[in-house]
Design the sequence.
């Protein structure tokens, strides 16, 4: 009889069984489950957590790269659809300076990587004064500017030949894609300049350095992709 | 050595007025700024809908003072057909972008996401500040088109090409109006992308100790999923807007095809463009956008309901997975907006199938809500009433989605009032109810004062009944063949429908007036409301563990440590029938006593 009552009462309620919590569970046991901040045994102390947890820049940069990838995917699909929608697509040969620019941006990735490794070992305590990490950053910055100058030369060259933005839709896409990419390069240059300033003021964080260089390598790869796309379609 | 890797100090509490209230880096102030922007926008959009409804009910009625808004658009205070379409476009654009995206996602998300995950702020406060101010400028650019010579664009919030891309020849506002529209939307995209960056990194990196992903409240999950959707959707809309602007300003031919004759003139400046290309790009953004508007509402309503039911949902995980399924599927269904656009019929089939599939996670969400509500002793207050209203609207509007998902039926119902009724109920009114539920629920935490419950309940019942009176008859009209975007009903078959339109107009005016009760309640309670305790609803999540209103760094210098799942209700503890997330107390359950 009693058993029946218990059964009835447990059926009448639809409250699901609450999860069982271990008695006196130490919060440090849950490390790794709840974000990187949990890895630090800081007991919630704001300053200690801040000092020890990796900066969100390392995640944030992937978010930024995802957004940029999506927008260039949109341009690409627009190009493919537009090319197939009419017979007016005009093929042309790309300005040769673009291939030179490709070498320049490729070289800038290498110099940035050299610089990044030197700064990291500098941060890690290896104080080799002859390494001069900033010098390679200057070279990277110069190569980046050279790339933008080279792209500008290509636009001017096409313009001199009488091919403007509205001459044909293939030129429209050429200008839109290369200008959009060049703007992202300029953004990367601003990031590099910021890294340099922080390096000089000794306020540079590794995550900032890594995020900036990841961005720079990404726009290099993005340029290779764009060059391939343009070479195929133009 | 150490100073080399020393990080930048977090921004301290601001002292100047500008830093505190205008260019603030504090996510809470930015959230309130977004809320204020949405409030201005929603009343502007509502007045526009009033003007349209009056014109639809009584076409030749002179609306006093309308010619001040536009001398050309409303000569003698009677709006021209073109001006009707211009107001319609602005109503749609303002509501979708500056209300349904900003209020439930950017406003509440900014204020509560960092607190719910246990962080002192978003990781990139400067980007966060830019996010709001860029959005604000976007709003100004959009509204400024009211005051240029031939007024705002008349192309609808979807801005279909080629009429949107051809220039002033296509009608009033199709020149500068479209350029301003596209500039505004491109800026809006930038603002929301910056916001999404902060939301995603906050959720992934800023969670406090013990806050595992599954311990996040459902509202936090909804904002996170929405921000991922926003990241991929707005980064596609921005290129589309740039191409549209180029078609206008630079004479390119992305969207304008050859041999177009518009207003008896052959358009020779453009050639070969693809009109469908705009629709593809737009709807690839546009369909996820309606989920960006509704998913935060799903999260807010779940959060509010659980607190007032005093029990967790039947399944926390299944709800989260369903939110995620909505997000993924929302990218695969956009073609259902283009069933009659001349797309390949096989494509229609391919888009129809996922559209029907997407009803599954939606139904699962609703069934979990109803199943959890069944038998619960729901605390009736304004917030929980609006949450119930949300469910009602979501079901009513969702059911018509089954019909529209099938090309065979959609071909008949497309571009009729049936569609208007469908999306207003399921997306607009439901999302607005979510915003109201969130407002009545979180207002005490945001301002430190309680809202007036009596006025709130009156506001709920008037809005609930009013919304059904407005939008249910739309379905009738649609089935009767009433095409949308007509400014007057002169055809024989439409004449008998005019009384229905007049009924809707009266209902819209009254329901709109009822919103001033809300506005009065909001402003009055902000200054004169009863002081709010720290945890007025006896809730468990982290925003209720801190002071009301929260201090500048949210938790007064010490981040909380999380010990529990977010919704520990219906148990015995020292504080009553709930245990807060940061309480180290061991949960004593009925099972322990056996």
Sequence:
């Amino acid at each position: 009889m009693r058993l029946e009552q218990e059964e009835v009462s447990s059926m009448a309620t639809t409250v699901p069984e609450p999860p069982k919590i271990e008695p006196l569970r130490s919060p440090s046991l849950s490390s790794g489950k709840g974000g990187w901040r949990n890895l630090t045994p800081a007991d919630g102390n704001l300053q200690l957590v801040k000092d020890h947890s990796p900066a969100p820049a390392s995640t944030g940069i992937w978010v930024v790269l995802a957004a940029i990838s999506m927008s260039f995917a949109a341009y690409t699909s627009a190009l493919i659809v537009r090319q197939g929608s009419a017979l007016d697509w005009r093929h042309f040969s790309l300005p040769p300076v673009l291939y030179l620019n490709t070498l320049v941006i490729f070289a800038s990735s290498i110099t940035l990587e050299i610089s990044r490794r030197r700064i990291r070992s500098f941060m890690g305590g290896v104080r080799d004064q002859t390494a001069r990490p900033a010098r390679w950053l200057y070279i990277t910055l110069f190569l980046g500017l050279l790339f933008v100058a080279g792209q500008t030369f290509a636009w001017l060259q096409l313009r001199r030949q009488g091919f403007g933005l509205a001459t044909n839709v293939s030129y429209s896409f050429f200008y839109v894609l290369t200008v959009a990419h060049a703007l992202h390069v300029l953004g990367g240059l601003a990031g590099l300049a910021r890294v340099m300033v922080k390096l000089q003021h000794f306020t540079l964080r590794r995550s900032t350095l890594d995020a900036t260089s990841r961005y720079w390598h990404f726009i290099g790869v993005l340029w290779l992709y764009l060059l391939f796309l343009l070479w195929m379609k133009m | 050595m150490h100073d080399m890797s020393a990080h930048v100090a977090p921004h301290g509490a601001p002292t100047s007025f500008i830093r505190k209230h205008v260019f603030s880096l504090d996510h809470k102030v930015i959230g309130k700024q977004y809320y204020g922007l949405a409030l201005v926008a929603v009343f502007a959009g509502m007045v526009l809908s009033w003007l349209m409804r009056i014109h639809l009910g009584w076409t030749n009625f002179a609306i006093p003072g309308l010619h001040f808004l536009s001398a050309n658009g409303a000569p003698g205070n009677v709006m021209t057909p073109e001006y009707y379409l211009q107001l319609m476009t602005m109503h749609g654009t303002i509501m979708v972008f500056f209300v349904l995206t900003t209020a439930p996602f950017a406003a509440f998300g900014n204020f509560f996401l960092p607190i719910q995950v246990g962080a002192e702020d978003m990781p990139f406060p400067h980007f966060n500040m830019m996010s709001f101010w860029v959005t604000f400028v976007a709003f100004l650019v959009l509204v400024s088109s009211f005051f240029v010579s031939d007024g705002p664009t008349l192309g609808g919030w979807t801005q279909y090409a080629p009429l949107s891309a051809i220039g002033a020849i296509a009608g009033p506002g199709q020149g500068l109006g479209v350029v301003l529209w596209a500039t505004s939307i491109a800026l809006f995209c930038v603002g929301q992308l910056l916001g999404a960056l902060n939301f995603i990194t906050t959720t992934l990196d800023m969670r406090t100790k013990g806050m595992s992903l599954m311990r996040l409240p459902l509202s936090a999950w909804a904002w996170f999923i929405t921000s991922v959707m926003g990241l991929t959707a707005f980064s596609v809309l921005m290129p589309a807007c740039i191409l549209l602007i180029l078609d206008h300003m630079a004479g390119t031919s992305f969207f304008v095809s050859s041999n177009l004759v518009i207003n008896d003139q052959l358009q020779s400046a453009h050639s070969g463009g693809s009109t469908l290309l705009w629709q593809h790009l737009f709807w690839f953004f546009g369909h996820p956008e309606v989920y960006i508007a509704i998913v935060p509402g799903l999260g807010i309503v779940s959060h509010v309901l659980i607190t007032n039911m005093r029990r967790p949902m039947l399944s926390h995980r299944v709800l989260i997975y369903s939110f995620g399924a909505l997000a993924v599927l929302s990218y695969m269904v956009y073609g259902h907006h283009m069933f009659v656009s001349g797309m390949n019929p096989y494509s229609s089939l391919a888009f129809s199938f996922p559209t029907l599939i997407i009803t599954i996670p939606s139904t699962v969400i609703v069934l979990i809500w109803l199943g959890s509500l069944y038998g619960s002793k729901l605390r009736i207050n304004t917030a929980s009433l609006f949450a119930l209203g949300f469910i009602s609207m979501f079901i009513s509007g969702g059911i018509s989605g089954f019909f529209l998902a099938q090309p065979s039926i959609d071909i008949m119902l497309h571009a009729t009032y049936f569609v208007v009724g469908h999306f207003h109920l399921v997306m607009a009114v439901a999302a607005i109810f979510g915003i109201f539920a969130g407002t009545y629920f979180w207002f005490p935490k945001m301002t430190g004062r309680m809202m007036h419950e009596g006025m709130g309940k009156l506001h709920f019942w008037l809005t609930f009944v009013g919304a059904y009176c407005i939008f249910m008859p739309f379905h009738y009209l649609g089935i009767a063949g009433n095409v949308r975007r007509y400014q007057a009903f002169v055809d024989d078959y439409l004449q008998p429908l005019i009384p229905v339109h007049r009924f809707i107009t009266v209902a819209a005016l009254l329901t709109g007036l009822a919103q001033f009760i809300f506005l009065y309640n909001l402003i009055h309670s902000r200054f004169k409301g009863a002081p709010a305790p720290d945890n007025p609803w006896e809730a468990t999540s982290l925003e209720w563990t801190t002071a009301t209103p929260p201090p500048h760094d949210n938790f007064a210098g010490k981040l909380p440590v999380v010990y529990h799942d977010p919704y520990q209700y219906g148990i015995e503890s020292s504080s009553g029938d709930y245990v807060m997330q940061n309480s180290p107390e061991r949960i004593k359950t009925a099972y322990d006593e056996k």
In short: The first helix of chain A runs from residue 2 to 12. Chain A has a mean pLDDT of 81. The helical segments of chain A are 2-12, 46-52, 57-85, 97-123, 133-160, 169-200, 206-233. Residues 152 and 179 of chain A are 9 Å apart (CA to CA).
